[in-house]
Amino acid sequence: MNTDSDPLNCGVCGRGCAAGDTCRLGSCTGPGMDAGPDPVDGGPTGCTAGTHPCGPDCVADRANLPENGCRLGCGGACIPPSMGASTCSSGGACDFTCTPPSMRVGGGCSGGGCAPDAAEPNDTEDRAYAFADFADYPDSSMTFTVFRVHASTDTDWYRFVVHDYGLDGNPIVRVTLDNIPSGSDFDLGAYYKCNAVGVTTATCRSGGGSPDLLATGYQGCTSSAGGSASETAEFDTECAGSDESGVVLVRVLPYSWSGSCDSYSLRVDVW
Ligand SMILES: [Ca+2]
Ligand SMILES: [Ca+2]
Ligand SMILES: [Ca+2]
Question: Domain range for residue 213?
C-alpha cells in the first residue's frame, strides 16, 4: 500500500478520498486535475520591431552572425552538423553548409565523397601500387586513367621496374600527370633507384631535382605547376656499372583538392 497514491488510504491508513478524486502525494485532489507539470508560460506573443522573443522576453535583434545564433537567436552560437559549417539565413535563422565532399541531406550533412580507387591504400612509399615492368628497348609507354584523389588527405604512390635492354643508351623515364580536375592542384614526383649497388644518378630533364627520398636511396624530380596544369617529371638514369635497370617511384600529391571524384591521367614513357 502506498499512502502517497492510494485513494482509499490517502496520506494515512484508512482515509479515503471522495468518489472520483485521486490521491497525489498524500492529498486527495479533485477530478480533472492534470497529472503533468504545470504548463510553461508561453511568453510574449508579439515583440516590437527590432526585437524578437527569447523565452518569456523580447530581446534586441542581433548581428546576423552564426556566433550570435544569427539575428533572431538568443545569443548562443549556432551548432553546425557533423561535416558542416554554420551560416545564417537571410531570414536571421541558423543554417549550415556542408563541407565537400559531404552533401546536404535533410537537417545534416552526409555521405558524398569519392570511392577510393583500386590502387588504394597506397598513401605511403612502402605501399606503392605496382605497375607492370617497362623497358627502354623497345620503347614502352602506358597511360593510366582509373586513379583518382578521393580525399584531401589522399596521396598516391606507384612503382615500376625499368629494364635497361639493348644498346641504345641509358633508360630515360618520363612521367606525366594530366587531366587534373578543374579547381584542384596536384603535384608530381618521380624517383629512381638503380638495381646495381652504388651511385644512382637521376638527372632531371623536366621538373626540379628533389632530395626528399634520398634516405631510401632514390633520386628524382618533382613538378609543381599551379592550378590544374599538367605536371611532367623526366630524367636520365646513370648507375654503377653498365646496367642501368632500376625501380621508379611515383607520387601524386594533392596540393589542393576541389572534391571532384574525377580520375586523373598518369602516363609513363620509358625509352
Ligand atoms: Ca588515390
Ligand atoms: Ca592513395
Ligand atoms: Ca600542380
Answer: 125-270
